[in-house]
Amino acid sequence: MTALVLLDHEEGRIRKSALSAVTAASQLGDVHVLVAGDAAVAQAAAAIPGVTKVLHAADAQYAHELAEPLAALIVSLAGGYDQIIAAASAVGKNVLPRAAALLDVQPIPEVVSIVDAETFVRPIYAGNALATVRSFDAKKVLTVRGSAFDAAPAEGGSAPIETVAPATNPNVSEFVAVYLSDSERPELESARVVVSGGRGLQSEEKFHVLEPLADKLGAAIGASRAAVDSGFVPNEFQVGQTGKIVAPELYLAFGISGAIQHLAGMKDSRVIVAVNKDPEAPIFQVADYGIVGDLFEIVPALTEALN
Amino acid sequence: MKIVVPVKRVVDYNIKPRVKADGSGVETTGVKMSMNPFDEIAVEEAVRLKEKGVASEVVVVSIGVQQAQDTLRTAMAMGADRAILVLSEESPEPLAVAKVLKAINEKEQPGLFILGKQAIDDDMNATGQMLAGLLGWGQGTFAGKVEVADGRVKVSREIDGGTEDVSLALPAVVTADLRLNEPRYASLPNIMKARKKPTETLKAEDLGVDMTRRLTVVSVAEPEQRQAGVKVGSVGELVEKLRNEAKVI
């Protein structure tokens, strides 16, 4: 069996969750990857061990990974593959269901475990339940959750790169602009440590109190929905059912009460630390270590103590 | 321009879901059900577009059991003009729903479908994309901002590293993310008025759609629960534990 993995990328780098999708695909058989746009990314993809072929969609229409042309391209390539797989990233979640519909397949999103070639485990109800589902479709279309599979190594392989012919573009969509938050910090979904803030941070200005601590730990910064809705940080910081799903080695939650929708995004972290002034906050029920107290005293003290 | 907004009846988001003892699914009997929160945002956006004069009519559609009528009433109390209930089994799959909506498109010919980006029960996040695919239309998924002008819709989309703007030819499909708007509460007079708004009831098979499931649920289980850990008294104690016990720093 051979799987085709859509390898999505940002600013010339393969997204780490896409490398996790390669790992998931390799559990099923041979792995070919599809890179839309950036030729340097196609080169990088060829070096992933276990990848036996790189399909490079070089045509300009694929440069921004727009769903409409990219799904059409995937459909044009799908004939030779048993599975079409992508990370459950913004790109994967946008493109794959569209391709699945065109293939008359019911996609299986956010797979966290592969039982066999027909059977997959995925969280439902914000991770409050795990459903094991079997697909009757001849071809399987899946997105996989990055936090559930190790990322494939970036070096060691040397797969051939083949430029693929463009498919007919439906010509119904145009890329206008992208606004990426420039950050020197690690990517939220793949950071080893995440420092996260909630409503308890009180304001956009006060949210900055987390930065020295994140710097000290080499951590990504995350946020609860409440913090994002209150305008403390932009939406891409959100951890939870509808934001980013993270599973770092260490997750530090400051001023986050722990709604189930937030827990859905971080409860698979290896070690969870919670700081909250409310001793009854539900976040303490999942935290390995908790401190009841004022985060505006504790965060600087913790930063200092790590010196 | 007419806007069609599909809405789903789901377990209320404040309810902690319970897995059935036999592992066949999540308990929905006797559980409070509400409109999927993302669908409320979609309804709100459509109603606002009508209030701005961009849209002329807002039609809400639900595909499921008879009780989805309540969800449609809520949407009409928020300002939708009329409703279509397509009877099928509970919680059909996104592929089947997209096919039903494609059939609704033939009947209604809207300029825009606005959907919630995902339902909070099955967390599929697929129906809007699938509908756009079946129709061959553009898709503005995970929308944080929607502007309709000159026969196109500009959608500001929430993506992993920030936001992305795309411009789509109309007709198009938009899926609503959390921050697109804050849905209104239906006022009592509007709830009363909604009772008089028309609902058409159809059957999925009358639309010629094969609702057969492609996925079978083998089992549903509770995930492993995390044990609550310890509360520590000081920052010093926390650092000591993270270093020597958890060995994570």
From TrEMBL, chain A:
Similarity comment: family membership: Belongs to the ETF alpha-subunit/FixB family.
SUPFAM superfamilies in alphabetical order: Adenine nucleotide alpha hydrolases-like, DHS-like NAD/FAD-binding domain
InterPro entries: DHS-like_NAD/FAD-binding_dom, ETF_a/b_N, ETF_a/FixB, ETF_alpha_N, ETF_asu_C, ETF_asu_C_CS, Rossmann-like_a/b/a_fold
Domain Electron transfer flavoprotein alpha/beta-subunit N-terminal: 3-178
Keyword list, A-Z: Electron transport, FAD, Flavoprotein, Transport
Keyword Flavoprotein: yes
Protein name: Electron transfer flavoprotein subunit alpha
Tagged with keyword Lipoprotein: no
Organism: Acetobacter malorum DSM 14337
From TrEMBL, chain B:
Family: Belongs to the ETF beta-subunit/FixA family.
Keyword Disulfide bond among UniProt keywords: no
CDD domains named among the record's database cross-references: ETF_beta
Function of the molecule: The electron transfer flavoprotein serves as a specific electron acceptor for other dehydrogenases. It transfers the electrons to the main respiratory chain via ETF-ubiquinone oxidoreductase (ETF dehydrogenase).
Gene3D superfamilies for the chain: HUPs (3.40.50.620)
Cofactor list: AMP
Classification via Pfam families: ETF (PF01012)
Biological processes annotated in GO: carboxylic acid catabolic process; regulation of DNA-templated transcription
GO molecular function, one term: ATP binding
Record note on quaternary structure: Heterodimer of an alpha and a beta subunit.
Sigma-54 factor interaction domain sequence ranges: 58-227
This protein's UniProt keywords: Electron transport, Transport
Full protein name: Electron transfer flavoprotein subunit beta
